[in-house]
Each structure stands twice: as C-alpha cells, then as structure tokens.
Amino acid sequence: MLEKRNPIPVAEAIQKVMLYAREGEKERVPLTEAYGRYLAEDLYADHDVPPFDRSPYDGFAIRAADSALASLDHPVELEVIETIGAGQVAAKAVAAFQAVRIMTGAPIPDGCDAVVMLELAKQYERNGKTYISIKRPFRSGDNISFQGEDVKKGEVLAEKGTFINPGVQALLATFGYSEVKVAQKPKIGIAATGNELLDVSEPLVPGKIRNSNAYMIQAQVLRSGATPVDLGKLPDDPDQCLAAIEQALPDVDFLITTGGVSVGDYDYLPVIYERLGAEVLFNKVAMRPGSVTTVAQLDGKLLFGLSGNPSACYVGYELFVRPVVRTMLYSSTPHLYKTKAILLEDFTKPNPFTRFVRSYVSAQGGQLYASPVGMDKSNIVTSLAKANALTVLPGGTRGFVKGDLVDVWLLDSEEGSAQ
Ligand SMILES: Nc1nc2c(c(=O)[nH]1)N[C@H]1C(S)=C(S)[C@@H](COP(=O)(O)OP(=O)(O)OC[C@H]3O[C@@H](n4cnc5c(N)ncnc54)[C@H](O)[C@@H]3O)O[C@H]1N2
Ligand code: MOO
Ligand SMILES: [Mg+2]
C-alpha cells in the first residue's frame, strides 16, 4: 500500500532541520593553514595599531612650533641631527630648530609633532652639518600616523564564525597568532545509492550511468566548509545499505545518501530509516526540484536522503545541509545569501511548488540580473555547471516575465543570510 506523503513548505522543512543544528568543536591550526577556515573565537586587538606614532612619509620629523613663521620669503632653517629608518628609534633628543631625517614607518622622535615630506624641504650642507629649509608652517599633528588610528586595544576585529579571508589572515598575523583557533570541519559521509551507477572511470554500458552526484556533493561539502567522507556506491539492496550506513554513522557528523527516496520498488531509504530506528522529520517538501528530499535524525545525528536526480540533489544540499554545516562553523548567517534580481527571460511555467531555478546572476550598472541556465528539470545535470544562484519562484504562482523582480539565493557568496 502506497504511503501518502504530505508536502511541507520549504521554510518549515528548513526549520525542522535547523532544530538539530549544533555548534561544532574547535581546533588549533598554524596561521599558514588558517585561510578558508572559520574563527572559533572573537578576534580582539590586544594592542593599538599602529603601536606607536609613526611617519607616513619619507621626510623630516620636526617640531611644528619651529615652522610657525616659515613662508616663501622667509624660509625657516632646521638642523638635521639624525637619520632613522623604519624599525629604528631616534637616539637623540630634538631641541628647538632641529629635525630628524625620517623614513616611512619609523617612530616619531620624542619632541617632534609633525613630518615634512621630502619633496617640501630643501636639504643642504654647511660646515659639515646638514640643514633643511622649509617655506610653509606645519601644524602639530601634520603627517603623523597616530598610535591606535587603525584600531584601538580592546576592539573586536572579527567575530567568531568569520570566514578567514586574506584580510582576516593579515589581522591574525598583526596580533601575533602563529596558531589560530578555528572551527573543526564537520565530517560528512556521502553514499550514492543505485544499481545503475558506474564508477567515473568505467565505460558506459546499456542502462547504466556514471555516478555524478557523489562528486557534485563532495564539491558542495568543500564549498560549504566541511570535509567529505566518501562511502562509495551502494547497491539498491536494503541489507547492504543498512550495514554500510550503520558502519559509517559513528565516524561522521552527518550522513548524505543520494537516490532511493521516492516511491519506486528499489527506493529503500524509507525502509532503512525505519530499520535504523531513525525519526523521519519529513519526506516531501513543497519544492521543485527536490520534492522527495527526506531528512531523518538518529540520536540527534542528521541523515539527509537527497534525491537521485542531480538538480534535486544539488538544491537539497544547499537548502538543508549547508545551513547545518555553517552552524557547526559558528556562522550566525548559515543560509544562502538572499537578494533580489531582475529576471532576464520569461518563465511562464506554473509553480505548484516553490521552484528553485538554477540561474546565472550578473551585475550590470549596479543592478543584479538573473538568467535561468539550461533546462529546468530535476534530472538535468548540465545547468548546474553554469548556476551561481537559485531564482526562487514561490509556490502557487505562474507567469513570471522578463523584467520582474525576483528573489535570488546566491550559491558562491561567503556571506550568508540569517534566515
Ligand atoms: N511515481 C512517482 N515517481 C517519482 C516521484 C513521485 O513523486 N512519484 N518523484 C519523482 C521525483 S520528483 C524525483 S526527484 C525522483 C527521485 O528519485 P529518487 O530520489 O528515488 O532517486 P532514484 O530513483 O534512485 O534516481 C532518480 C534518478 O536519478 C539518477 N541518479 C541516481 N543516483 C545518481 C547519481 N549518483 N548520479 C547521477 N544520477 C543519479 C537515477 O539514475 C535516476 O534517473 O523520483 C521521481 N519519481
Ligand atoms: O524531487 Mo523531484 O526533483 O521534485 O524533482
Ligand atoms: Mg527512485
């Protein structure tokens, strides 16, 4: 007897999954391996940057008061008593009408409070001494890069969960983190089910296809910041699938299977969840593609039964797996980044369920535009290669036309959305 499945709205399905989302563990990695990871702690400034007043120019450090009367007609002469480069500290005290030759990055000598750019000073020698003359006054503070002007001690520079981009990497180095506490990468088991599946290296034979989903998901897992664990191909045999899943579960944070979740004779995932004693959170979502997406939990561990159809499988990962991965990585915005774009083509098909159209979003003149890419069917694989976004057409609508403003969820953005 065919069990009747109840489609639930996408937002409700996501909510049900998110109830099981947990923050992950921390680990320390060398700074050289921190790029691309997620901070496990807020990053505080434990000192001012710059840590001392310094010169932003090559030139001369002076006492501004000495230049008060300088003009084109009456240049002021100062004696240059010392030269310091970046990394050096002036050894002498600067007295009235004295200056220090200073290079960019060197600390401002005691007593000085302004810097004259090299180009604005005339330098000359007289009786074995070096002098400069300047033809305009400088105010106290002119051309000084002040201690703490970049950041003050105690400020939070990047919050826990921040993606470590090259800029964050620079901050970590600035504050002396030779090792960085980052979120441990969740481990995600991936098993592709189906008797029809060939290995990538096998030649095609009648009735069979190559397993593309496992490799697609592997890349999605990596893109979302987790580690894929390849559990291989499983035949459409409930005993073998059950044994493989039971064996794999203890070593992974989540388990993804593809295929076998619909109502076919060889769709065994529902039976397997039952035999495992897992609670099925839902087995039908009002979305296309991916309506058969099934998610179950066993002792709090999520089992994602993604569709066998490539486009449905892909969308299932981005909607349901990505946010739990990002939550483990401490993100407060774990979902795909949501924005709006102008549709560049008519999309007149009705949308009985919310439709996620694989799309290419581009920016032109400060406006985002969305073009559907390739055929909009769940068994299509080619459209995925061009997609950088999902255009979201709500269930119960039809007749979107070129020029309509539509919701788009970006696939490649490091930024996410809270909801
Ligand atoms: N009578 C009904 N039939 C179907 C329904 C339905 O509601 N009633 N739902 C359809 C929808 S929607 C989808 S999506 C698919 C989902 O099927 P399954 O998740 O059970 O997946 P399979 O049956 O195993 O395979 C479907 C399709 O995908 C190909 N596939 C499977 N695994 C891979 C892989 N690793 N790499 C590439 N391609 C894969 C497989 O060969 C099939 O062509 O069910 C509809 N049917
Ligand atoms: O799960 Mo099926 O893709 O709705 O397309
Ligand atoms: Mg099936």
CATH topology of the largest domain: Molybdenum Cofactor Biosythetic Enzyme, Chain A
Query: Which structural class do you get from the secondary structure elements?
Result: alpha/beta
Q: Give the CATH level 1 class of the largest domain.
A: Alpha Beta
| Ligand roster | ligand LQZAQKY5, molybdate ion, magnesium ion
- Order the strands across the largest sheet as they lie in space: 6-3-5-4-8-7
Q: Largest sheet, described in full?
A: 6 strands, mixed
Radius of gyration: 31 Å
Oligomer: single chain
* Helix coverage percent: 10-25%
CATH 4th-level superfamily of the largest domain: MoaB/Mog-like domain
Total beta-strand segments: 24
What overall form do the CA principal axes indicate? elongated
Distinct helical segment count = 7
Family: Belongs to the MoeA family.
EC number: 2.10.1.1
Protein name: Molybdopterin molybdenumtransferase
Organism: Anoxybacteroides rupiense
Please render the helix and strand layout as text:
Elements: H1 10-18, E1 26-30, E2 43-44, E3 59-62, E4 76-84, E5 98-102, E6 114-117, E7 121-126, E8 129-134, E9 156-158, H2 166-174, E10 179-183, E11 187-193, E12 197-198, E13 209-210, H3 213-224, E14 227-234, H4 238-248, E15 254-258, H5 269-276, E16 279-282, E17 287-288, E18 294-298, E19 301-306, H6 310-328, E20 337-343, E21 354-364, E22 367-372, H7 382-386, E23 389-393, E24 405-410
Parallel strand pairs: 4-5, 11-14, 11-15, 12-13, 15-19, 17-21, 20-22
Antiparallel strand pairs: 1-10, 2-9, 3-5, 3-6, 4-8, 7-8, 16-18, 18-19, 20-24, 21-22, 21-23, 23-24
The structure holds ligand LQZAQKY5, molybdate ion and magnesium ion.
The site of ligand LQZAQKY5 has 27 residues, from helix 3 and helix 6.
